[in-house]
Amino acid sequence: MTTYAMVIDTRTCIGCGDCVVACKNENKVPAGLNRDWVVEATRGEYPDLQTEFRSERCNHCGHATCVSSCPTGASHYWKDTNIVLVAEEKCTGCKACIAACPYDARLIMHPQGYVDKCTFCHHRVDQGLDPACVSSCPTHCMHFGMLDDRDSNVSRLLRERRHKVLLGETGNDPHVYYLL
Amino acid sequence: MIEEVLATARYNPKIDPTLGIWTWEISFYLFMGGMAAGIMLFAAWAVLSRKGDQLVFAHSRFALWAPVVLSLGMTTLFLDLEYKLHVFRFYTSLQATSPMSWGAWVLVLIYPLMIGQALSTLRQGYPMLAGLVNRVPGGGRVMRACEAQRRMIAWLVIPLAVCLGIYTGVLLSAFGARPFWNSGVLGPLFLISGMSTAAVLPILAGANPPERHFFEVVDIGLITAELVLIALLLINLATGGAQHIQALALVTGGQYTVPFWLWFVLPGLLVPVVFELVAARRYRWLGLTAAALVVYGGFMLRYLMVEIGQVSRWTDYAIQFDPQLLHRLVQ
Questions:
Q1: What integer pLDDT is reported at residue B315 of this predicted model?
Q2: pLDDT, tens only, B151-203
Q3: CATH number at residue A172
Q4: Among B6, B95, B108, B324, which would you mutate to test the A interface (most chain A Cβ atoms within 10 Å of its Cβ)?
Q5: Is residue B5 part of a domain?
Q6: B interface mutation test: which of A56, A66, A92, A109 has the most B CBs within 10 A?
Q7: Taking the model in full, what pTM does it have?
Q8: Distance (Å, rounded) from C-alpha B236 to C-alpha B242?
Q9: Closest to B6 (Cβ–Cβ): which among A39, A91, A169?
Q10: ipTM value for the complex
Q11: Is A145 helix (H, G, I), strand (E, B) or coil?
């Protein structure tokens, strides 16, 4: 399996939300729905506060519970990678995948009714391009690439910098990393 | 202190601010599925125990209720689907890791069996209906074949009905992402609750006094087992990780404390078991009230479990953007 990862530098992310707008434009996500979002996490006690911005989305898990819970095979891995997609023509809208996702990263496309989510812009990845959110980031805090390639930007960053994943304890093996 | 706030708008319908993907349709389906499993089990048991003279209703009339009850549940399950035209997709593959896929296929196995079980009782329990079936070409032959194989059908019904009853709980407990559901106790709990709601139906349907008394005694045992399983579920959550403890707090001081204890445990389990223990034999209205409360409790269990499970989660964002507020501004 080819493993793609997104690495986001929380030190240079300013929470501008360009990634969210880029995703909506690129993927024609209807108004009122979002495949990605930005979280502002504040820790500490005043005046010792620390703020971190995180651009979040589907984590394209290696052990994706949404894939294993789908009763029709609509949720699947794309071309032997960890990129999780939903085959619209197989989706019944039973919403089992939504209940199975600990990140609550899925959404329902109304009025059609099939389930939608971040695709890591696989149509762009197929052409050797970065996902739209990564390409549009004004502070270049977002990086995308193959983890299997030791020389890729994402592998190098994860080797050199302290990082974390969200809810790693779920055992889902998420592949969106945050540099600390 | 840690505070996580959504800095950009995210208000995906039915996902935010808390999950609300499944509502009464799924609760009703789980309730009817469990009840159908219970009906099949009691009808099979009445045949296998050769107590047809004592358990007249269970022996000759009960089995027909199962396909009716399950079909009503299946109807609301269908109503819940967001992409209804694709319902056939459940039967184009078997996904080994998906309990929902297994459930869909169990239903395919169970339907012919429950219809066979019903047909085997039709002539005895519903002569008019049997007459109608007789008029259908081949209907009489099928009915006679089912009657001849009545015991074998009953034996086959038992494992499949247990699967159906347990499956209604496993469907929820398999979701690790919803801490309140994530307990192996849920499968047996839903099976026992389904059996309990089925056990009171002969009482409500006006079965004879010895049969009513038999089912009251059975139901006392089932409600007791249900109370034990609910206690185990709560202990399971209390001894789990942070997410499980947070999920438990929803019913121990949190927003679902009153509905769980005052709308479900008290009127749906404790009151009926006391009525059945104390005075149902002497006062028929008490027996009927207890039976109605058991049915109510069975539905409330599913309704609250479905709802609380969706509120319990791993993520914990405060949402700054609420479209409801914009809507109010426009007004």
A1: 83
A2: 999 999 999 999 999 999 999 999 999 999 999 999 999 999 999 999 999 99
A3: 3.30.70.20
A4: B95
A5: no
A6: A92
A7: 0.92
A8: 12
A9: A39
A10: 0.91
A11: strand
